[in-house]
Each structure stands twice: as C-alpha cells, then as structure tokens.
Known about the structure:
Chain A is built from 5 helices and no strands. Chain A is mostly helical. Chain A has one domain: 3 helical TM bundles of succinate and fumarate reductases (Up-down Bundle).
Amino acid sequence: xxxxxxxxxxxxxxxxxxxxxxxxxxxxxxxxxxxxxxxxxxxxxxxxxxxxxxxxxxxxxxxxxxxxxxxxxxxxxxxxxxxxxxxxxxxxxxxxxxxxxxxxxxxxxxxxxxxxxxxxxxxxxxxxxxxxxxxxxxx
Amino acid sequence: xxxxxxxxxxxxxxxxxxxxxxxxxxxxxxxxxxxxxxxxxxxxxxxxxxxxxxxxxxxxxxxxxxxxxxxxxxxxxxxxxxxxxxxxxxxxxxxxxxxxxxxxxxxxxxxxxxxxxxxxxxxxxxxxxxxxxxxxxxxxxxxxxxxxxxxxxxxxxxxxxxxxxxxxxxxxxxxxxxxxxxxxxxxxxxxxxxxxxxxxxxxxxxxxxxxxxxxxxxxxxxxxxxxxxxxxxxxxxxxxxxxxxxxxxxxxxxxxxxxx
Lengths: 139, 260
C-alpha cells in the first residue's frame, strides 16, 4: 500500500485527530462476555441435545411430540435454540467487523442481527408449538 | 468491502540483480523490496549477492554493506544497531523483527526483506508509522496523578508494585507487533494495535498512576480494544520477547471485573 501522490490530499486531518476518531463507544465488554458465556453454555446444552437425539432415534411423531411436550425438555430445547442463535449473532458480528468495511459495514451488521434474530425466533416458536400444541390425535 | 488483491500500484515486480564480486566464498542472496515515490513506478525486489564472510553477523550489517559498497540508493532506518532504538524494524524472511538482532546465519536460502507489512511506504524499507505513533499518543502514555508528589522526593513504589511493570517497560516501540497483526491490517484505523495496548496497560498497571478508570473507559470500545482476536502474532514476533497479547488479556480482565 504505497502513499498516493502528494499533489492532492483528500484527508488533511491530523494523525492524532484520526487516531482519537469518534472516541470510545463505551461498549464491547458486554459483547466479549456474552460471546464466551454463550459458547460455554452451548457445551452442556449441545451434549444434552445429542444424547436426546440418540435416545429418540427411530421414534415416531407421537413419541417425539410427547418428548417435546415435557417442560424440562422444552425449556432446554428453547435454551439451546436461543443460545445458538445468540452466539451466532455475536460471532457473525465479529466477522463483519473484520471483513466488511466502509459504507457496507453498518447495514451488514444490522442484517446479521435481524437474520439471526428471526431464525432464532422461528426456532423458539417451533419449540413452543411442540411443547404447547396438542399432537393431532389419530382417528 | 473485502480486498482480496493488492492495489495495482502495489504489485511487486522483479528488480535489478547485483552479483557478488569475483572470489567471494560464502555468498548469500538478499532480495530487498524497493520502491520510490519519485517516478510513479511499481515496487520491485532487487537481488544482492553478498559474501557474508566479509561482513558482520546481522542482517543490518548486510544492509549497511549494501548501502555503503553496492547500492547507495537503498533506503532504510537504523540507529543504535543493538536492539534498543527500534528503528530497523522490518519484515525479514516473513517475520517482523529488528535487522540488527537477526543473525544472517539463522536463515536458510535467500533472505527476503520487506518493509513492515500493511503500512504506507515512504521509500524502500521505510514505512510510515505516523498513524501508529498518533494512536500511542491517544492513550496518554505518561503518568497522570492528581495527588501532589512528596515535596522531598519522587513518588515511591514497593518492589512488588514495580515488578508489575516488568515485561512492559522494555517495549521499544518498533511496532513489529502492531504491523504483524491481521486485525490491525483490517481495522488499523480504529483498532489501537498491540504496541499501543501494551503501553496502555503499562500505565493502567502502574501503582503511581491515578487514572486507571479513565484509561479503561477510553479503551472500552468494540474496536480500540476488542478488535483483538487473540491471534497472538504480536507475541510471536516481538523482537524483545515481550507478550503484548497477555497485556491485552489483562486489560480485558479488568474491563470484565468492573462490569460483572
């Protein structure tokens, strides 16, 4: 990256002014904490989920619906979905910060938040439907 | 957006070849990045064959020999030639280090020398560090204390308090670490970089400083501090053997401590 020709400078702001920039955003620690806490929480939740899926192997719809209707299962399942998509949101934002610059940065970051939020919501609604809805009784 | 290629004016071409004088015995080739702002041409890699038996042991000795005896147009910074001034920081064989501390015989094959990565170039191996220096200044790297000092002497520290500064006061600000950091390459305009964060923690950890909270406040930022992705290139490359990644980790610990 070579210096451009000194005959025309578009930026004449001092280096110190540029370094100080817009100052501190007074956020970042919270993001850093939840990134790690959500990752750690996903370990037991995912372990539980994998074990449950093995136990439900070959089960039919009624059995799965009955499993999902139990409050403990529904709670853990909802926690797993929420934590997964929250972790995805937090992690994808970091990738956007690293690789997307300039004008595209802010809208991309918003899209990540909205996208992961909606997908997470879809997962939660599905869990609730499984937990609260009555399985269609076979005639 | 994402830049996958070098800008066209930064594509590096092949340069001149300077053969070793006849009768040289222990010849090594130094391939050195050359660029001048004067003629609008692209950078090139010039190749210099040097008889390393005829010069001192370090890469800086080879550079000085080239400038004195082979090609006086070669431009680089150097001063103390003993690893305390930080002037001759450059990328040697793919690693940022000080030319005066890098033994030629430690390397195999051709020795490839580039300026510090991803900084604007002034000429040849001289990179423009104005932005990094300004970032250092932005964290106020000096003692800030409101209590009056003792009238009859200096502000005192216990040996334990003083020991907390070890591994930080030794930094010579060569910016090998900052310019080795991919996160700094991506967001160098907003991320402060390891050298500046090490300096910031040096003052946060100083028992005589009374502005730890303000210092933490000004670093509490998604980019200034938290753009550190713990890649650890900084610690691996530091020619003084310091650990900027650890200092950054300590700052994060303190931020978490006062939040939770």
